[in-house]
User: What shape does this take?
Amino acid sequence: MERRRFLADSGLGFAGLAASAMLADDGIVKADSPDTHARRHFKPAAKSVIWIFLSGGYSHMETFDPKPALTKYAGRTYAETPYPNPVESPLHRKRFRSVPAEEIDVRDVYPKIYPMQVGFRKRGTSGIEITDWWPHLSDCVDDISFVRNMWTTDNDHAAENQMHTGRHRLDETQPSIGAWAHYGLGSINENLPRFVVLGGPTRTDTRASIDSYYLGPEHAGVPLQLDPGNPLAFGKRQPRQSADQQRQEFELVSELNRLAADEFPHDAQLEARIRSYELAFRMQAAVPEAVDLSRETASMKTAYGIGTKETETAGRRLLAARRMVERGVRFVQVFPSPYGKWDSHQQLKTNHTKMCLSVDQPVAALLKDLKQRGLWDDVSVVFCTEFGRTPGLEERSGGTTGRDHHPNGFTIWMAGAGIRQGFVHGATDELGYHALGEGHYVTDLHATVLHLLGLDNTRLEIPGRKRLDIDRGAVIGDILTSPPTPA
Assistant: This one.
């Protein structure tokens, strides 16, 4: 093996293509550069996105889509109500793809109706109904667009990956929504990643939720810890090495890699490695400052619920998310709670009382904070989960207090840049079972987010990779403040 190839493949490089990376970010790139496939297609409505994901599947009926019919007909079967039996609807098969045989996995068709576990009322001047578990978010309802007719196909927690990649676990894995945003857009801040992850991925088997796959490793999410002393794994200078020594080392490696890049100009792995080392070098100073919440005022931390046991974790992550977009990070994916915490097969009332408390104040604080800092017109916020919960009582193992997974209809919401305020789009049926009409598969949400950033999801193509129509999705135009504007 030639010496220069050895040096390139052994991971020593960092800056040989730094100039081309910066040119790509400015839109000045070679015809064969990956960045040319994803320049902005029209004028963006947002500069950044904060994507808040609640792992486990919150109940849409007990959060943002109240269904009083559940209480009225509690204890009866679907067939004993005046409404069509939702299990007999053709939508049931269309929006349900079980891995086991259907005669084995019949979890989502529990027929006995379970009543709502919390009260609800109209909120704000818009009169949008949400439940009593959201006292702080209720103050923000006039800023939010709720999408009540989302659906997906995986009835198990692999739906967490599906929510982010658009593909069922039986299909070929696709890049995550954050990776597509990273791929399509240049950086606002050269010293921070374009795609930051806070609090996740929640487990090793949910890595797909932040991964980039065939887009290349440089487009994957970068998980950060909220410890200014060590925010990025392996991202600290060695204790015995001075900053000057490290700079000299990187200068030498830069020169070696320029030689390697000249000889292997189309080596994608080398290019990705060079960019990652270059970014890691710059991040050593920028990331600790960005995650240092001690720089925030005491009143700001209190507003986010920091210092209170129930809201501490979500508050810290969401405040850090604001600091990230404030510094130019394009896509921040936040996991306010650990894997599966919203899963409520039993004790739904106890679980959701606790979990809503943990995020209600911090999320409301984020929305108010974005407004106060003049970021409302720059940042779009997404609030979502992997599926809803069944209208029927889960009766496995003698259960009497919970709901099972439900991919057939659920609610997400958006707020901020480019989003209509105080608006409800779509609906589920009277029992909260099916998303009515065509509804919105998860990639419609992806298309909407990319649209807000100025990207047309139908035009994001990779040579040699076949994307399906379902991967592209369709923009949920009803919740936007304006139609696309040509760039």
Q: What stands out?
A: DSSP finds 13 helices and 13 strands in the chain. The chain has two domains: 1-32+243-282, 39-226+291-479. The two ends are 47 Å apart (CA to CA). The mean pLDDT is 86.
